[in-house]
Automatic annotation (TrEMBL):
Gene3D superfamilies noted in UniProt: Glycoside hydrolase/deacetylase
Alphabetical keyword list: Hydrolase, Metal-binding
Protein's name according to its UniProt entry: Polysaccharide deacetylase family protein
Domain NodB homology, chain residue ranges per copy: 28-209
Keyword Phosphoprotein: no
Claim: Hydrolase is one of the keywords in the record: yes
A Pfam family of this chain: Polysacc_deac_1
């Protein structure tokens, strides 16, 4: 069984990580985020879907993908979306030595800065946290986790599975994770348009982090 939401007890014992936003009582803001891009055609698809509703989102980009597709990074920026750090090479913190991981983190940050913008925050690939990330990187910039993980990269999940769980999970202040990647696209292309329409119908406003 796929776990879309981290148990509340884990969120409570890791308070330095951002799992969701506390919103005002009348707020209808939610935060869609997209990891692992930019990816030609797929990121364009996401941007077109967001444009349909004038919604904004956050893209946690891999540095090497940004270097490979700089024109796509510029489109993300020009359309008013935000960009976050997802390491240079999608580094797994549990397999990297701390100095190597920090180099990968900093290299991606340098790439983001080369586009004349600041990183909105960091999301560790695979959601894997170490003491260093928790105590040190969280002091440098926000470390964003999630309220809801779509699992769009998981071929064992159907679009209907994801849609059902996502609609139940969307609440004011929630942070949702999707992936603008080749692996996720068979499910993302079905799920994203319907979820955006759901948000419009329910009067949610998608904002960038």
């Amino acid at each position: 069984m796929f776990i879309h939401q981290i148990p509340a007890i884990i969120r409570k014992v890791l308070p330095k990580l951002t799992w969701q936003y506390q919103t005002k009582d009348d707020s209808r803001e939610v935060y869609f985020t997209f990891d692992d891009g930019p990816t030609p055609e797929i990121t364009n698809f996401v941007l077109d879907c967001l444009d349909t509703y004038s919604f904004k989102a956050t893209f946690f980009c891999i540095g090497k993908n940004m270097l490979a597709h700089p024109e796509l990074v510029q489109v993300i920026i020009d359309k008013g979306h935000s960009i976050g750090n997802h390491t240079m090479n999608h580094a797994n913190a549990w397999k990297y030595k701390h100095q190597s991981y920090m180099h990968d983190y900093q290299s991606c940050l340098d790439v983001i800065h080369s586009f004349g913008v600041n990183s909105v925050g960091f999301r560790p690939p695979y959601g894997r946290i170490t003491n260093y990330i928790y105590h040190q990187i969280s002091q440098l910039e926000p470390v964003y986790m999630w309220t809801y993980l779509s699992g769009d990269y998981n071929k064992d999940l159907s679009p209907s599975d994801i849609l059902r769980s996502a609609k139940q999970s969307i609440k004011p202040g929630c942070i949702l994770v999707f992936h603008d990647s080749v692996k996720a696209f068979p499910r993302l292309r079905v799920v994203l348009p319907e979820l955006l329409e759901f948000c419009k119908r329910e009067k949610y406003l998608l904002k960038a982090l």
